[in-house]
Design goal:
Blueprint (H helix, E strand, L loop, with lengths): L1 H13 L5 H15 L5 H13 L4 H44 L3 H9 L1 H19 L3 H15 L5 H17 L1
Helix pairs in contact: 1-2, 1-4, 2-4, 2-6, 3-4, 7-8
Length: 173
């Protein structure tokens, strides 16, 4: 199981560009659909916890999935595997980009990747939404969080904590 965790998260880390939210569709495909390690509900709980925990969502998600499946060693292996490709890539890219920092073609290529990354993040949100937004309060919280974060009116941490408190309060009433 540890080897399978390592290879799964190494692949996700190696073939995803754009950060943790862009990785969520790959997490979902490999963890839920291909390997059947977790249910959609378990995965959503892990993603929610990973978002609220300090640190990058991809690393937190890999750590929590690894822990759920194989305890401490699973979390360690999953975390190392998800980080290793980025560590190697960033080290190499820093060297290369330093050499190409004045090259307009290289800068255009990097800017051209932004729409693809945005599409991957939207895909992740759309695939998680049907099971995450189930009550009228969820719709209100989603819309409010979207507006507040899109307009940069509030810090994302405040939005997350506020949404959690509001949901908790209305859940108790």
């Amino acid at each position: 199981m540890l080897l399978k965790l390592f290879l799964t998260f190494l692949k996700i880390g190696a073939f995803t560009f754009g950060g943790g939210y862009a990785m969520l569709p790959l997490f979902q495909r490999d963890i839920i659909e291909r390997n059947h390690w977790l249910t959609q509900s378990d995965f959503l709980d892990i993603v929610a916890t990973a978002e609220m925990t300090p640190g990058p969502i991809a690393i937190n998600t890999a750590t929590f999935v690894g822990y759920k499946l194989s305890g401490f060693w699973g979390s360690l292996v999953s975390t190392l595997a998800i980080v290793l490709p980025s560590f190697i890539s960033i080290t190499l890219l820093a060297f290369i980009l330093n050499k190409l920092k004045d090259n307009k073609d290289a800068q255009s290529g990097i800017k051209g990747m932004r729409p693809a990354v945005t599409a991957m993040i939207i895909t992740a949100a759309l695939s998680l939404a049907p099971q995450s937004i189930v009550r009228p309060l969820d719709i209100i919280l989603f819309a409010g969080a979207l507006i507040l974060s899109w307009k940069n009116w509030l810090n994302p941490i405040v939005i997350l904590l506020g949404s959690g408190v509001i949901s908790l309060l209305f859940g108790l009433i």
